[in-house]
Amino acid sequence: VEQVDIDCKKFSKDIRSLDKEMRSWDAFTGLDNSVKNMITSLHAMNELQNPAIRDLHAPTVPLLLQVNFTMSEDTTLADLLQLNLHKFEDEVRGIVDKAMKELGMEKVLNTLDITWATMRFEHEPHARTGIVLLKSDETLIEMLEDNQVQLQNLMTSKYLAFFLQEVSAWQQKLSTADSIISIWFEVQRTWSHLESIFISSEDIRSQLPEDSKHFDSIDQDFKKLMADAVKTPNVIEATNKPGLYDKLEALQKRLALCEKALAEYLETKRLAFPRFYFVSSADLLDILSHGNEPVEVSRHLPKLFDSLAKLKFKMSPDKKPLKVGLGMFSMDEEYVPLDADCDLSGQVEVWLNRVLVSMRSTLRCLIPEAMVTYEEKPREQWVFDYPAQVALTCTQIWWTTEVGIAFSRLEEGYENAMRDYNKKQISQLNALISLLIGNLTAGDRMKIMTICTIDVHARDVVAKMILAKVESAQAFTWQSQLRHRWDEGKRHCYTNICDAQFQYSYEYLGNTPRLVITPLT
Hints:
Layout: H1 8-21, H2 33-48, H3 60-65, H4 77-81, H5 89-118, E1 123-125, E2 132-134, H6 138-155, H7 164-198, H8 202-207, H9 209-231, H10 235-239, H11 244-272, H12 281-289, H13 294-297, H14 301-304, E3 308-315, E4 321-330, E5 335-343, H15 348-373, H16 379-382, H17 388-411, H18 417-437, H19 442-467, H20 476-479, E6 483-487, E7 492-497, E8 500-503
Antiparallel strand pairs: 1-2, 3-4, 4-5, 6-7, 7-8
GO molecular function, one term: dynein light intermediate chain binding
Keywords: ATP-binding, Cell projection, Cilium, Coiled coil, Cytoplasm, Cytoskeleton, Dynein, Microtubule, Motor protein, Nucleotide-binding, Repeat
Organism: Balearica regulorum gibbericeps
């Protein structure tokens, strides 16, 4: 074999074939060591022809193999075999493995070059001012995160040495881009939120003059920054400008001061009208910015009151709403006139407090009025004279009163007092059921159904006391019930259960249904 002079590249095909057939040393048991060494050397030659081994690896091969050899057109197979590559099998494998890993790194870095050379920011105009803002791009964010993970993996490779500088440079660029994009979108979002408040709201500008001037300065700096950003659309170039992060960080801190001043201002408004705690800061700012326009503010009333949806305004001769409230509408369109005109002028938290007072005053006036007229006509007629909440509350007050009267008559010796009242209950309930069979408006039907729900419970409580032969108003069976009563001296409605007592709050609830009362509810 040593005398055969053939080109090594041509011979490598035979070596690969031979290697497959004689992979196990067991096949060489009948061969001498010289043949074994030759086969190993030829296999090493084949490994060194891997395309991953390029000019950058050529100088390292002779050093690792401890030989002085130069490949040329006159090199023969005999020359290669004299290198005794069989002695350096592990070294050759290490060279090839290193070359392949470095080739993979080079491909990753080439891909980064191509990807980020074409990656650009998308822009969109600001709705109110029209200035160009950065547009959120999920593809960009995902690409940035993926490439940072790739670079982090490269940094942990033991074959990094040759590409260390390039990988470190890319890691720095993408890390900077990530930080800049994050703070940039945060600054942009905060500016967009505050711009509509400090620039377009005259109420806020008058209440916070110093902070408004401060924001004007921020506004100019931010617009200048965005104008410059449009000129550099490439992501890497735009985000790696010297001093950009410091500028954005300074803007962020200045915007934070404006936000703090605004939050403190909103807190004073919430303290003045605590129901403002029910709404978000954005809704509260909208309420404050339209504080002198009750019609606009009325859109937010359902967020501030349990069931007050809108107000009825007094109209001017030319049919324009004045700042005077005449009545309130529930979300189910029930209308309740206020007991007196409500002044809706002045600061919004002031006139909303007037609405709250007027709402409670109206219900507090209607309840004793309905109490007086309860016995003047049949209940199935009386219920249509008053709002659902008033009719229901007075029904519950009269139930407590009439059960109390029945107990008094029992103590006087009239044994059938409670049974007689139970019969009256059943009669009143049947009268309401008859109404439900007839034609009713949606509002009236809901009102009757709600009273029926409570009436059924009241009937069952009385029937239970009859069955248990309860004869005293102090019995626990009665004391454990939720009992409404009207205190004529204090002119207030109270609810009692056992030894607890609560004053009725007169919050307008509209015409809403009630849960069926069971031992659980």
